[in-house]
């Protein structure tokens, strides 16, 4: 039989979506109590240091919530951000995150990460916050992501960047100023201009 304390702990974890032990300690739930909830089958360990209620229903962005919980300073970028904004047909087998140049590389057992190093305005501008399964995630805006793809075209392929630009132009008519601003920040204005002219 579930105790009232266990029930309130499960309700809290359900509200948080995904929880780390240190999140729960702030609410008075100790690691020993968390272990007991896991043994009772009320809570499951999703990955190292991340827990959810046993009947948690993952969304399409479940992996992003996981990574955001483990790497809160990271910003989802490039292919992962394109997928989030619906600007690509490419499927990413890894999760792309942007980190400051000197930040330590996160060690995650799941999922596989691709880390892109950003600095200055290229790191801090165009960051949006969204809620996924109760977790705040940080992701670059659609316009910033398109500019980033041109900046990283040698890693991703020019075709990926061009497809993203075409999809962006269809979905976000009237956002040319945003695109131009991020092209300047990412120093790809001259690279992008011929493609912008072609779809104008």
Radius of gyration: 20 Å
Separation of the first and last Cα atoms: 66 Å
Share in β-strands:
15-25%
Q: Which structural class do the helices and strands define?
A: alpha+beta
Structural write-up:
The structure is a single chain. By secondary structure, the protein is of the alpha+beta class. Helices cover 49% and strands 18% of the residues. The strands form three sheets. A three-stranded mixed beta sheet has the order 3-4-5. A two-stranded antiparallel ribbon has the order 1-2. The longest helix is centred in the C-terminal third of the chain and has 14 residues. The protein starts with a helix and ends with a helix.
Identify the notable features of this structure and list them briefly.
single chain, three-stranded mixed beta sheet, two-stranded antiparallel sheet, 200 residues
